[in-house]
Amino acid sequence: MDADPSVENLSQRKTQAGIPNKELSPALQDPWLAQDQADLLAVLGLRFGDIPAGVIQQVRTLDDGDALQRLILVAANAPTWEEFYTELLAGPEAFRLVGERFDPL
Predict the structure, then answer these.
(1) What is the pLDDT of residues 14-39, one digit of tens each?
(2) Exposed (0-12), middle (13-18) or buried (19+): which is 82, by Cβ within 10 Å?
(3) What is the DSSP secondary-structure string of the chain?
(4) Alpha carbons 20 and 6: distance in angstroms, whole number
(5) Alpha-carbon gap, residue 68 to 75, rounded angstroms
(6) Which secondary-structure segment (H or E) carries 8?
């Protein structure tokens, strides 16, 4: 695999990993938001395997960079799919990862 860390190269890797960028919302004009969507789907796929179509669709509609970055952290740290899904449904009001369920120790 190529060692180029560019965004374009990372996007190609994600496409090869089974999450094509064309699945992301075409309405998004901001490439950083599209990349955050792809990153979130990639982390979910690595952590939990198959991603339900409804969750993929919900991720495609997210247009808040801060919320996407928070959900990437949640996806990386949530101990179960249910914990991640609860946080996904929490909406933009949620802004912290608190409680024993996110304790890495």
Answers:
(1) 443 455 555 545 444 688 899 999 99
(2) exposed
(3) ------HHHHHHHHHHTT--GGGS-TT---HHHHHHHHHHHHHHHHHHSS--HHHHHHHHH---HHHHHHHHHHHHH-SSHHHHHHHHHTGGG-----SGGG---
(4) 17
(5) 10
(6) helix 7-16
